[in-house]
Design goal:
This protein is an alpha+beta fold and about 140 residues long. It has one domain: Hotdog Thioesterase (Thiol Ester Dehydrase, Chain A). The N and C termini lie far apart (about 35 Å). The protein is built from two helices and six strands. The longest helix has 18 residues. Strands 1, 2, 3, 4, 5 and 6 form a six-stranded antiparallel beta sheet that branches.
């Protein structure tokens, strides 16, 4: 079976800790894949807020998800504190990738690696737009 691989940057631009809640646990007794996507979303929101942005206003444009890749590395359980590192990669004319490394804060063991591809989007016009220059200046 062919496995996906993600290339990480040499340095991540941001890190935040998020505790695994009981609602994040699935029938297998560990962090569910759907909950991991929600936690990645929370990490991205925090990353954007740290730079003065929101998902609906990054220099006047919003973002919309076009793809997601998640590579699971180990289990995580209720009460674990996960450190989410976030970086921006592959900036193009209309989009970019956010990459994430999730580690268990207590053990420093990788829990997951992920990438979310986004394009910049005008929610009023319902169309893809160019990346705002304020974002390019920071991450381009």
């Amino acid at each position: 079976m062919a496995r996906m691989k993600l290339d990480f940057p040499k340095k991540f631009d941001f890190a935040t800790d998020i505790q695994v809640q009981i609602a994040n646990i699935n029938y297998g007794g560990h962090l569910g894949n759907d909950s991991l996507l929600s936690l990645i979303h929370e990490a991205r929101i925090r990353f954007l807020e740290a730079h003065g942005f929101t998902e609906r206003d990054i220099g006047g444009a919003g973002i919309i998800m076009v793809d997601t890749v998640v590579l699971y590395k180990s289990e995580s359980f209720h009460g674990d504190v996960l450190t989410f590192q976030v970086a921006v990669q592959d900036v193009s004319r209309v989009g970019c990738n956010f990459v994430y490394r999730e580690t268990n804060k207590a053990t420093n063991k990788d829990v997951a690696h992920a990438k979310t591809g986004v394009v910049f989007f005008d929610y009023h016009e319902r169309k893809v737009v160019n990346i705002p220059q304020s974002f390019v200046r920071l991450f381009g």
